[in-house]
Each structure stands twice: as C-alpha cells, then as structure tokens.
C-alpha cells in the first residue's frame, strides 16, 4: 500500500504544474480522479507530435506531453458549466481529501466550485489553487504560462550566453521548469496541510503562484542581487560564485568540470599537467579564481582540448574531481547508472500495448512508489467513478451521458 493510499484527490488541473503534483500524489498511492472537459480533455492531449504509436506504428492520438504527467490517475469527463456537472463535482469534492485546480482567479466561483463554496460541504478539504500570479496582487487576474514566467521572474536574465559572445541573449530552460517546480512546491504544501489536518483538524486553501515559485527558486542568484544591489548577468554555462564550474572543450566534444573547493582544484591541476596553477596566487583560492576567471578559463581551455571527453572523465573521477559528459537523451537513457536505477520503464496501455514512462525519483523503503496504471484515455473511468464513488445507478449515468453532461 502506498504512503498516501488512504487519500482521494480530485484533480481539476490541466497542462503541467497541477497534473505534475497530482501524479506525484498518485505515485505515492493516492486515488487521483482527473476531471476533464468532454471531447477535448486536458489541453496537452493535443500538444503533439509526437504521439504514442501502437504496435503497427500508427498514432494512437495520445500526445507524449500528456503522457508525461498523468499516470496512475482515473479520467472522468464532466461538463461543469452545466448545473448537473457542478453537482457531480460538488459530490466528488464532498468525498475527497484534496482538490487541485489551476483556473484563473475566481474562475470556479461562477460555478460554485471555489474553496469558500466547497468547504461548506467538506470542511476537511485541502484545496490547492495554482495560478500564474496568485490570488492577490495587481497581476492576479492575468493568465500565466511557464515561458513568460521564466522571463518575468528573472530566470532568463541568467540563462544564455554572456553579452558580447556570439549567440548572446536570453534563453529559456529546455523543459518547463517553473511548472515542474510549482508542482513540487504544491505537493509539499499539500502534504503540510495534511499534517496540519491530522494534528488540529480542518482543511485549508493553498495559494500557489508560478511567479512566486520562480522568484523563490532564484536561490543564490537572488541573494547575490539582494546583498549587493547588482543584478547578476548571463554567464553561459559558467557559475557566478565558483570557478572553474562550467563546460570545457575536449578532443572530441565537451565535458563539464565542477570544482567545488580548493582541494579539488589542486587535484584537477595535477591531472591537467599544470600543478603550478594551484600555487599561483591568482588561482589558489576560489575567491581569487572568481576574481581572475578571465585569465584562468582560457588556460584551462587550452589544456582540455588535448584529451577526449572519456579520458577526462575517467582520469578526473579517479582523482576525485567532479565532472561529467554532456549527454543527449539517447545517451541519458543508455547510461548504466540511469539503467541501474530503473528510470525508464513501461506500463501496459490499452491502445499501444505499452507506454514508456520516466520513473519517480522518490525511493521509500517501507512504502515504495506504485505504478498502477498508464495515463488514462479521455473519460476512461467516468462510469466506474460515478458508480463506485458516488453510487449512481446505470440509468442515472446513462441519462447524464445522453444529456452531454459526461
């Protein structure tokens, strides 16, 4: 039994941040009922190609994007713009522990599905709202997407080649990182609210904002600004506070060198055949290496091109200096450590036979993550959930279907 197998989650969210949180809770054993619009469903079902293919190489119509964030869930299609649909959502919320939604501020109030309305029928409900800018403030009514939040929230001012370099300019992170981080923070908040409910009783409203999360995750770069008043600039792959901590060219490509202390730098200098670097007052401490990076980095680049990436990685690992290759995703999933940890897996799928998945990184010794089912087909569990959770009879379900409510 999963750690959260005693919980039911009503997931009204779509795209990524909310569904990512829902998938984490589902992996941990919670029953997650994903409520989608009839016919079209979650926006990401159409975000392709690529689409999952069946055994004959034909498209199943299931977008890879959607498949990344919705396993272990039950899909129920309900039109809650209709009064009958609103009643179904209220009835499900009355029997749920957690509700996740990412509609615009006030968007669900028109249907009587906001927190203030639902807590009247379920005071124990933990209601997590995820928006671009939160429930308050001058931007609260605005829609927010990961890309724009990466820009607005400062991440893109730190990502990309430095000014003056060829190809300089702001660059977004290659995955929707703000959405993912918001899903993670939302999960943490939900678990905290559950702990409070178990201790003192009562649910609560959680107000999560992509912008808040993005600013919070600026971490050391935020503190670099707040302690100096000087906004950090883009450094490409270099680190603002540590040198050398970036990519370097090799005889057959590039590799990443991450020297975290002066002892590691001394070991690197030995492997590089330049032991005098460690005693040079310009480079002997990290503080001095940061101050003199313009002199040191070209010297390192001149040295690293004489060995292959594999040679550098092998020799530096033997010396205890952190480093690694720059892998594409084919190399990632063929990496022996990735294989040993079982990060690529398959789940049975009704249309394709099997669907690939990336395993959860959570490893619990007593209540391990469960992989119960593939991301569901649109409306796959509507009848099952309405009958088993709400106790609706076949005639009632058939009438709702005939009326287009489900």
Automatic annotation (TrEMBL):
Keywords of the record: Transferase
Pfam annotation, one family: CoA_transf_3
One example GO MF annotation: CoA-transferase activity
InterPro entries: CoA-transferase_III_domain, CoA-Trfase_fam_III, CoA-Trfase_III_dom3_sf, CoA-Trfase_III_dom_1_sf
SUPFAM superfamilies: CoA-transferase family III (CaiB/BaiF)
Protein name per UniProt: Crotonobetainyl-CoA:carnitine CoA-transferase CaiB
């Amino acid at each position: 039994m999963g750690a959260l197998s005693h919980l039911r989650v009503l997931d009204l969210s779509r795209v990524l941040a909310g569904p990512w949180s829902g998938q984490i809770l589902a992996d941990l054993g919670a029953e997650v009922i994903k409520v989608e619009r009839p016919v079209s469903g979650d926006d990401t079902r159409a975000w392709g190609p690529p689409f999952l293919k069946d055994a004959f190489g034909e498209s199943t119509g299931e977008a890879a994007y959607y498949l990344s964030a919705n396993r272990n869930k039950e899909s129920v299609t309900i039109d809650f713009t209709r009064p009958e649909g609103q009643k179904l959502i209220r009835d499900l919320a009355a029997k749920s522990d957690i509700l996740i939604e990412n509609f615009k501020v006030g968007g669900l109030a028109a249907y009587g599905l906001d927190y203030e309305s639902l807590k009247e029928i379920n005071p124990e409900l933990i209601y997590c709202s995820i928006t671009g800018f939160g429930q308050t403030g001058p931007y609260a009514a605005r829609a927010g997407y990961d890309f724009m939040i990466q820009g607005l929230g400062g991440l893109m001012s730190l990502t990309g080649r430095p000014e003056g370099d060829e190809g300089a300019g702001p660059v977004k992170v290659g995955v929707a990182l703000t959405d993912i981080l918001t899903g993670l923070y939302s999960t943490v908040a939900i678990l905290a609210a559950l702990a409070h409910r178990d201790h003192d009783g009562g649910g609560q409203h959680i107000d999560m904002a992509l912008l808040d999360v993005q600013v919070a995750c600026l971490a050391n770069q935020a503190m670099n600004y707040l302690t100096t008043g000087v906004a950090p600039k883009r450094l490409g792959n270099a680190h603002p506070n540590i040198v050398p901590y970036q990519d370097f060219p090799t005889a057959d490509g590039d590799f990443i060198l991450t020297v975290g202390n002066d002892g590691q730098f001394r070991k690197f200098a030995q492997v590089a055949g330049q032991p005098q670097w460690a005693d040079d007052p310009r480079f002997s401490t990290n503080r001095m290496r940061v101050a003199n990076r313009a002199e040191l980095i070209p010297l390192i680049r001149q040295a690293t091109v004489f060995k292959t990436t594999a040679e550098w990685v092998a020799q530096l690992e033997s010396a205890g200096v952190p480093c690694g290759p720059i892998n594409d995703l084919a190399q990632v999933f063929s990496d022996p450590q990735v294989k040993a940890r079982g990060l690529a897996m398959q789940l049975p799928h009704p249309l394709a036979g099997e669907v690939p998945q990336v395993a959860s990184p959570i490893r619990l010794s007593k209540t391990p993550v469960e992989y119960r089912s593939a991301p569901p087909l649109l409306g796959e569990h509507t009848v099952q959930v309405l009958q088993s959770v709400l106790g609706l009879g076949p005639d009632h379900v058939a009438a709702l279907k005939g009326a287009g409510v489900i």
